[in-house]
Every structure is written in structure tokens, then in C-alpha cells.
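Usage

Read records sequentially. Each one opens with the input sequence:
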Amino acid sequence: METKPTSPAIKGLLISLVLIVFGLVLYFTGLGKQQGVQFLQYVILGGGIIWACIDYAKKLEGNVTFGNTFAHGFKVTAAITAIIAVYTFIALKFIMPEMLDYTLEQARKGMAENKQMNAEQIDQALEMTKKFFIPFAIAGVIVAFLIFGVIFSLIGAAVAKKNPNYNPLQNQ
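and closes with the structure output:
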């Protein structure tokens, strides 16, 4: 007897909570400013989406197709992306507003090393960065999570066990 699979929204919420807790731990321990550590969020994202695809196929006893499993993984990705986009706005606006100052400081250092920009150009560039920081950060999260989500959904759909004798058209 097959059991009903957990909804993509619930799986997306669980994975998002793990990502949020991970991000907060990095922030409050000061590890978030190290370049390589941020990569781990994509390991968590990938592991979560692949787990969601495998769990989906397992709950349906392998009576799934590659497309069904990929679609489930992408729905989980969409839920995660929506939740993390909202969290990113809240975090940058209220939890860690100093991230804007840190980012501007790092950008100023990088631009100062570039001898092709004068002080006025650097100030103009930083003013634009300051004005659009949160929208660009949210857009970056959305694009990155959707791209990686597609990749991880494909991997999850490929590795999920499927019943080789399952024909989705025979029930119609």
C-alpha cells in the first residue's frame, strides 16, 4: 500500500528552516564573511532537494516517472526560493542591516584597487549599489536558487528509485 507523499510546500519549509538556521549561525558566529563557508548553503539546498525527490519516489513505491519526480523537486525548489527570498528581505532590513555597510566597504576596497576609477566614480557606483542592494540581493537569491534547484531536481529525479514496470498510462 502506497502512502501519500509529503507536500512540496512542507518539504520546502523544512529545508528553508535548515538554511535559515544555518545562515543565522554563520552570521552570529562571524563565519558568514568567509568566502568558502557560504558554499555550504548550496550543499544543504542540494541535499534537501535530492532527499525530497528520493522520498517522493519511495512514498509512491517507485511508481513514478522521471518527469513526476523532477516536477516534485522543482516544486520544492519553488517553495524554498519563495521562503528564502522573503527571509533575505527581512534579514537585510531588520536582522543584519549592517551587511549593506560591510558590502559597500568591500566594494569600495575592490574599486580602489582598480586604478581606472576615480573617487567620484567610486562614490557614484557605491550610491547606486546602496540604492539597489536589497532588490539585487533578492533577485540574486531567486536566480541562484532556481538554477541550482533545477540541477538538483534533475539529479534527484535521476537517482530516485523507479519501478521499471510502471506505466503511467495504464491507469487511464
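Summary fields computed downstream for this record:
- The chain has a mean pLDDT of 91.
- Residues 71 and 153 are 8 Å apart (CA to CA).
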